[in-house]
Fold:
Amino acid sequence: MRCITENPTWRAEELVAWAESKQQFATKAHHFGPRHFNPWQDLLTALAVPTLLIVSNPARGGLVTAEAAALARSISSHVEVGLIRDAGHCIRRESPVAYMKMVQSFLGKSEK
Structure:
């Protein structure tokens, strides 16, 4: 019910997947913490292939700000940033058509 209330535009199958993922992660959440993660900026310096960073609207819950996306792009020339304005935190669920179009376009470039 929480997912339906918070995400009224999601398709039914996405609601089920969300609920299942929350149950699966909750049992393992205690294994994660700051000591398990490298700073994302350090990870970008190791990129050797084209990488698509899809960002959304922070006013709708998006986690990556325009400044952070610009920083990612400045750290690695392999990073391409794509913005989907009408999405929030869960881009692929909130704007599936725009998401797939962006991913397919990006993958099409790498095939050439």
